[in-house]
Every structure is written in structure tokens, then in C-alpha cells.
Design goal:
It contains four helices and no strands. The protein is mainly α and about 200 residues long.
């Protein structure tokens, strides 16, 4: 392997291009020198013949450099294509994760809104309680709210587990926090239910 070949290979595209440029420069120098040669003596004819040999050798090296350059360009193109394929895979993964996150956000928001509505119903029921429950309507409404809170706590747990399974720990913590709040509310409602007797 010629020193220029080793340098071009080790330096990649720029090295191959520089080696080609250097060889082209040498070829042009030899060609210009050949054109300037006065072919008026035996000595001049020998120099011209030597220059022709040098130009032929240089031309051969240029062909090799060009082949190297094409090989390096092919390698660069393959690397670029591999990088583009990686970017495409990453873009698809990001798109999929964004869709999963959006879906989980929607589920979490729906749970929070439902919990807020159940909380409002409980507040309204407690505010309307005047101590008498003639037909048992308040008791049944209270039990329905208690069941809703328990169902929501179970839904919040399922949401937290789904978020964790999809590797969204912050949403899993949010779901677990909502579940704990709902369980605390459920305990308070149980205590009130016992007092209502």
C-alpha cells in the first residue's frame, strides 16, 4: 500500500479527496512541463519521454485515487443512509410514545374530572343533610357516592399501573397520588356513613 493510500484510508473522505487533488496537481505539473519542452535535441527528447512515463504513472495513480474516492463516497453514503434509517426509527418511536403519553394524559384528566364531580356531589349531599332521611334517599345517594369513590380509586390504581407499564413513572405517581386521595375520601365517607347510622 502506497503512503498516499494509507493516508487517504485513515482520513476518510477528506483524505481521499486531498490525495486525489495532490495527484491531479502533479499530473497537471507534468503535463505543463511536457508542453514547455522544446523538442530540439536528443536530451530534450529523452526528458520528454521520461515525462510521458511519469505522466502515465501519475495517470495510473489518479485512477487509483479516483477509485478510492468513489469507495469512500460510497461508504459515506451508506453511513448517511444508516443514520437516516436510525433517525426514522427514532421518529416513529417518538411518535408512538407521544401518542401513548397523550392517551394516558387524557385518561388521567378524565379520572381527575370524575373525582372532582364525585367530590362535588358528596359536598352537596352533606350540605343538604338536615338530619332526617325519611325515605332513605340520602343514605342511598351516600352509598352510591361511596361506591363511585371506591371505583375511582380502583381506576386510579389501574391508571398508575398502566402508566408504569408504559414507562411513564411521573404519570404513575400522579395516578397513585389520586388513588391515595380517593382512599382517604373513602375512609372519611365510611366514618360519616357510620355516624349516619
Amino acid at each position: 500500500m502506497v503512503l498516499g493510500d494509507a493516508m487517504a484510508k485513515s482520513q476518510g473522505l477528506s483524505g481521499a479527496a486531498q490525495a486525489m487533488e495532490a495527484e491531479l496537481g502533479r499530473f497537471e505539473e507534468l503535463t505543463e512541463a511536457l508542453q514547455r519542452e522544446r523538442l530540439s535535441s536528443e536530451k530534450a527528447l529523452k526528458r520528454a519521454a521520461q515525462r510521458l512515463e511519469q505522466i502515465a504513472e501519475c495517470d495510473q495513480r489518479m485512477a487509483e485515487r479516483l477509485q478510492q474516492l468513489v469507495g469512500v463516497i460510497t461508504e459515506v453514503r451508506q453511513r448517511q443512509e444508516a443514520g437516516a434509517a436510525t433517525v426514522q426509527r427514532c421518529a416513529l418511536a417518538i411518535q408512538q410514545r407521544a401518542a401513548e403519553l397523550s392517551q394516558l394524559h387524557s385518561q388521567g384528566e378524565a379520572l381527575r374530572q370524575e373525582a372532582a364531580l364525585v367530590g362535588q356531589r358528596a359536598q352537596q349531599l352533606l350540605a343538604s343533610d338536615n338530619g332526617s332521611d325519611e325515605n332513605g334517599g340520602i343514605r342511598r345517594a351516600f352509598e352510591a357516592i361511596q361506591q363511585s369513590v371506591r371505583d375511582l380509586a380502583a381506576s386510579a390504581q389501574a391508571f398508575a399501573e398502566a402508566a408504569l407499564a408504559k414507562d411513564f413513572p411521573d404519570l404513575a405517581r400522579d395516578g397513585e397520588s389520586l388513588r391515595m386521595q380517593l382512599l382517604a375520601t373513602s375512609n372519611k365517607l365510611d366514618l360519616l356513613s357510620r355516624r349516619m347510622g
